[in-house]
Amino acid sequence: VLADHTRKTEWMDSCVKAYLVRQIAPGRGIMYNRTGSTVPLVSDRDVVLESTVDIWPDKRRVTIDVWNVEDSAVPVEDGVVRMPDLRASWVLSALAPSRTEVTYTVRADPGGALPHWLVNMVAKRLPMRTIQKLRKQAKKPGYEADLAKVKSQFDWSGFSFEPVSAPNKAKSTESSAGAPPPTPPARSVKP
Fold this sequence. Notes:
This protein has 191 residues and is an alpha+beta fold. It contains 2 helices and 7 strands; from the N terminus they run E-E-E-E-E-E-E-H-H. The radius of gyration is 19 Å and the shape is globular.
């Protein structure tokens, strides 16, 4: 569902237009997103975003990081305010063969002269509504081609749910306390 830019308006809260500007590489692209305003006298907002996908097979986790960029291929439309800053991330953690935990975080400056109370109101509801709609969207048909594309571009072998034997705790003397966080792996893209 996240890989299909043509249907984001069906589930991304307040999204009225979205498309892929260009694919840079598997798991990396430039996309356009326009958020519609439901408040009188407030213009729609739009943003051009770059995204990257990282696969963490040992943690059965996928992270998608998104940030705004400037791109001459996407000029600002009349009557629309270009967001000067947007950062977002999706973290998808496989809990079971048909169960995924999704965390979606967004930080954005919508630009223009908007009152803080209005920005905060939208900021609180938009991520939750988006996740709720994503859950429903994932059950809809029509994503077979996108799923096949994602399966072919990335190595998913670490995501199997075969029983794993627990390490022998009596012999283990290693501790992760004070250890630095793991370094993201190189993009797990199939050649």
